[in-house]
Amino acid sequence: MTIDQEVARDFDTEPEKDLAAGNERAWRIGTSVIAVALVAWFFIAWLALGRIAWDALGESVVSGMLILLGVTIVGVVRSGRPR
After folding, report:
1. How many domains is the chain partitioned into structurally?
2. Residue among 35, 44, 25 at smallest CA distance from 68
3. Staple partner for 56: which of 7, 35, 46, 82, CB 3.0–4.6 Å?
4. pTM for this one?
5. In this predicted model, what pLDDT tens digit does every residue of 4-23 receive, in sequence order?
């Protein structure tokens, strides 16, 4: 096998489909809603539930990380589907 054959084999003939293409507005709205919800959760946990500010902040940060994990898993599953 020559180097040219190896290089040609590494490239797909089809360009990759960008799953987020055309959905920029939806992504911005979704991101804004999630950010507002996390800030609201911080204030609810801190003021209404009477938790220490650091605990409320930790809850908000961990909730955000779990949302990011969920979005990542959904993205991996969607990108792995046959086209």
Report:
1. 1
2. 35
3. 46
4. 0.65
5. 555 555 555 555 566 566 67
